Amino acid sequence: MIKVGIVGGTGYTGVELLRLLAQHPEVELAAITSRGEAGTAVADMFPSLRGRVQLQFSDPKDAPLDRCDVVFFATPNGVAMQQTRALLDAGVRVIDLAADFRIKDIGIWEKWYGMSHAAPDLVAEAVYGLPEVNREAIRKARLVANPGCYPTATQLGFLPLVEAGCVDVGYLVADAKSGVSGAGRKAETNILFSEASDNFKAYGVQGHRHLPEIRQGLAIAAGREVGLTFVPHLTPMIRGIHATLYARVTREEDFQALFEQRYAAEPFVDVLPPKSHPDTRSVRAANTCRIAIHRPQGGEMLVILSVIDNLVKGAAGQAVQNMNLMHGLDECTGLGQVPVLP
Amino acid sequence: MIKVGIVGGTGYTGVELLRLLAQHPEVELAAITSRGEAGTAVADMFPSLRGRVQLQFSDPKDAPLDRCDVVFFATPNGVAMQQTRALLDAGVRVIDLAADFRIKDIGIWEKWYGMSHAAPDLVAEAVYGLPEVNREAIRKARLVANPGCYPTATQLGFLPLVEAGCVDVGYLVADAKSGVSGAGRKAETNILFSEASDNFKAYGVQGHRHLPEIRQGLAIAAGREVGLTFVPHLTPMIRGIHATLYARVTREEDFQALFEQRYAAEPFVDVLPPKSHPDTRSVRAANTCRIAIHRPQGGEMLVILSVIDNLVKGAAGQAVQNMNLMHGLDECTGLGQVPVLP
Amino acid sequence: MIKVGIVGGTGYTGVELLRLLAQHPEVELAAITSRGEAGTAVADMFPSLRGRVQLQFSDPKDAPLDRCDVVFFATPNGVAMQQTRALLDAGVRVIDLAADFRIKDIGIWEKWYGMSHAAPDLVAEAVYGLPEVNREAIRKARLVANPGCYPTATQLGFLPLVEAGCVDVGYLVADAKSGVSGAGRKAETNILFSEASDNFKAYGVQGHRHLPEIRQGLAIAAGREVGLTFVPHLTPMIRGIHATLYARVTREEDFQALFEQRYAAEPFVDVLPPKSHPDTRSVRAANTCRIAIHRPQGGEMLVILSVIDNLVKGAAGQAVQNMNLMHGLDECTGLGQVPVLP
Amino acid sequence: MIKVGIVGGTGYTGVELLRLLAQHPEVELAAITSRGEAGTAVADMFPSLRGRVQLQFSDPKDAPLDRCDVVFFATPNGVAMQQTRALLDAGVRVIDLAADFRIKDIGIWEKWYGMSHAAPDLVAEAVYGLPEVNREAIRKARLVANPGCYPTATQLGFLPLVEAGCVDVGYLVADAKSGVSGAGRKAETNILFSEASDNFKAYGVQGHRHLPEIRQGLAIAAGREVGLTFVPHLTPMIRGIHATLYARVTREEDFQALFEQRYAAEPFVDVLPPKSHPDTRSVRAANTCRIAIHRPQGGEMLVILSVIDNLVKGAAGQAVQNMNLMHGLDECTGLGQVPVLP
């Protein structure tokens, strides 16, 4: 059994980790921390876990994290970079669900995240946890930077095209829509039910923190800088990301075949038949990314549709997938949930 | 492995059965029928099942139902009563998720369902599939009448009081609220998104078909007729029933203890601590009923709150629970899903 | 033109007052205050008011409230009782949308609201602003206590029965469901979209502050104390209250006729035909209460369904109705909005 | 008073026309037809109109449409083209809210709408009813083709750029999101609450009927053919369209000033301050289009955000605006509704 610790378990990625780990046959939940809720039973805060998770939140100071095999950080940005070194030194592997180790260029990270980085050397060591790109490196990693939700949906949709070099990477457009849980479980007015329900809006059009992360991933795949316009939107649903991706063809290909081949061996990427329109609900509560390829009216513009559950393949599920890889388990262990529809 | 057939798999109880059975370790899905969709791959109609269910819908005439161990009817009312006898004769056990075998008094059934009953003798044989009441009978049953969604939530909430004889059963009130999936997957104007969203209404106040079913169950428990006012409401959510139950105390008891004892051994009934307010989402996609007991201002009126997922404990999950009982499996097999929250 | 001031305009009742007053032909908006947002243009905070409201929020100290004809308090409980006397002394009429002046018994108020009352004499003077009960007194009032949302829907539904003395007022049940805007525009976790959407729950079953308010109104109508069980619920919609009311018949009446006669002259109460099921959306954004009367299976229990928009007839619209009465205008002036459906 | 007839009043554009016309001071509702609902009181079908609309639906054969001043067609495509000539001959002006007269090229119309056109000469005569482009022609028109919802939001967002010739019109992208009411009030499975709620998807990526309409409008403005990729999406809200528009700069401009000047005199187009993110709810139930201009990171790509209420500025409100123009009224008459927020 893998002994697992979670730092910061009161947000949505935390409770989603608990949901998945409570069903994982090879995991023993050893500790979960929360400064504000120390002493509270996890199941009192999240009644959905009654009878399934017996743990209490512990104060971060008291939690036996250094005796875990792996620790997940489900914390705000800036926390993991302070605490990871000590854990690694104690022989604990770390998966950070926040952004501390995602961006290799420290200057870019500091500009977008507005703080100094506490552990640049660990950024250099960290493996970006997108198994469809870095599977072998993840297996051996001590420290995995779990990708963001938008970056997961967007990169999986663009990667086959960018890797094949058949589109104009100077003018990519990613128009992405997220359910409100992507904003976290914070008491903020703008994500109140009465504000976000029956409403739709863009946000962060001037620049969203996931932009440099996506750009970095696509640049690695392209072997050059890419030009990307990324516009996130808030849509009145709890879970789900739908990325609508636009790229101009520069070299003819059988694009459907390109995607099918690229993802033929991937257990969590499902390339749909031509002309499909994936619903976000078709992946609700499951670790799957579904992708459809369109070329409207046979023109020069490709339209790729990519959907994930932002809390699963976009966060906690992908983190468990990475944990499985890091511990030599079948990658799919504990991730067999069938999407909940309707 | 239990060979399972499903008749009528294109509605919400059908797809929910498929979701649960696809994760059930002891089940082999042998056939699923649909007159309208024969030849269509199940996963083409429900993309959430891609990679998980390989079956096609078969025409009812061609499906090898009589070689199954158990057949579920997820059909409109009136279908199972026509086809059950042949299956029973072939040695197949039957679980009807519709209402054909729920009401013992044929006259009452015919009045509320507006048709003649085709198999009154099978009604007499059928076991009402509420395991918390009829567990032993279900184990031996050839034919189980799976309870309705409102009746499950309402009976589980009232039963301890009615069995104990400590409330006035002449004036029970059940004010119940259902998510829209309870109305089924029918193309009807009144359950369109634009009609049912951001809206709330009662319906069927003059009389709903679940009223005689609840009355029958409570009368058996009380050993006498009960007076019940039952008002169902449509609430703008997909899944979930919240029954708010009112009963006047006629004999003092420790009501919290009464419920805790009644359900102490029940794997799928969770009695919450005093003064709790269960969310429907705390049971979303899981086979659990959560119940809270209130006595506002210490007055004469008890208020019981009972929540279930109408598609799971209120339909497909309870049907699988019954199947497990009928086949000698652990009752919880394949029903370990943790509720999806948020 | 009536010069109007609003104290506390950043909540939902405040912005709803602005929506209605911006369309009112006899009103000049003179001032709106907010401690936190002083200097901000109202239309910057609520873009729906761009081009319609030119005011800025002013600091409460600087606002020319004492030169207004009427001041609305759209503030938290406890504010109006501190500031009303000075306004009345300056000849300004006051309408309080909070609860400071609703409960005549100061001891009961202090118990339920958890603070000492600063102006008991003004409570004695204040008129409870339910025009269907107190129209003539409202016309002459200096100070109106605008009713709560649940109390409006519940009293309008019970009043004809209670006034006529034809039901058992010892065991009334009000099972009420509210849209989330009823909880206000506060940054609280439990009313986040991801918490409140696709979910349903009761709250405050042990006791809600609207209980003594409803009891007081019904007791006046009955001429005696009433026994009321009141259970509020949170339903995933923005606006609307649906009160489902249960009362046992003690004297036969033509109940449909009773309601029709009681409300025949009321411009904002609509008694529906027998056996109707009013949607909350049928009053969305309008100052109407719609009521339907049921007697299921001709039994002893009456079921009354009463719907309002909690922000209009349950708050800002009723306040404007009261303002019209206080200033000798046609009661309906500025309140002609047709409900928004779908 | 303008005598108004409505053909086909049982859909969402029909009931929205009724909502607006019931509040219009210069309109007398003379007739509303429905084949299926002849004899039914309008207010029985739409209780939101109780007390506001006294009409019954009449059979199309019996309705005195030829004695109206103006007739609105709120019918499926293909109806107005059959009936318009007779009305025009009788001296009645016609506003078609469907697509029969929107596309000047009959071949293109017949290809996209899948039927033969019954009145090509009337297409030639019809004025495309976008007042921001064709105001003077609308004033004199006998026949107005009211624009589609997506085309209104999209054209208003692109027009200043295309007219000024400062973007590459060969590669425009319109990523548009619509509330579900845009799909109409048809009993179809895919727009059921349980299918469309808590879900997001694209549709019609291979080609949507609004594509040729938008292309036509932009081509007129550009003076040349335009290349447009248009992807519509279904978002789980009732009303609202959010168009996110992408265009590559080919000539530098002060784009904010360009939009402000273009729409300076427009009563129903609101150009927001730089860096704004318009909510769809900021125009809910009102005839306003709000537009924001972005240039992320000062790059080559402009991002324009354009929001409308699909049933108002995208249908019934724009139709009333056109009616006002055709009858010499102030363009804003009866369209003063303040958006409903929250």
From TrEMBL, chains A, B, C, D:
One GO MF term attached to the UniProt entry: N-acetyl-gamma-glutamyl-phosphate reductase activity
EC number(s) per entry: 1.2.1.38
Family matches, as SUPFAM superfamilies: Glyceraldehyde-3-phosphate dehydrogenase-like, C-terminal domain, NAD(P)-binding Rossmann-fold domains
Gene3D superfamilies to which the protein is assigned, alphabetical: Dihydrodipicolinate Reductase, domain 2, NAD(P)-binding Rossmann-like Domain
Active site: C149
Domain Semialdehyde dehydrogenase NAD-binding span(s) in chain numbering: 3-141
Residues making up the signal peptide according to the UniProt record: none
PANTHER family: N-ACETYL-GAMMA-GLUTAMYL-PHOSPHATE REDUCTASE, CHLOROPLASTIC-RELATED, N-ACETYL-GAMMA-GLUTAMYL-PHOSPHATE REDUCTASE, CHLOROPLASTIC-RELATED-RELATED
Role description: Catalyzes the NADPH-dependent reduction of N-acetyl-5-glutamyl phosphate to yield N-acetyl-L-glutamate 5-semialdehyde.
HAMAP family (UniProt xref): ArgC_type1 (MF_00150)
Protein name: N-acetyl-gamma-glutamyl-phosphate reductase
Organism expressing this protein natively: Sulfurisoma sediminicola
Gene, per the UniProt record: argC
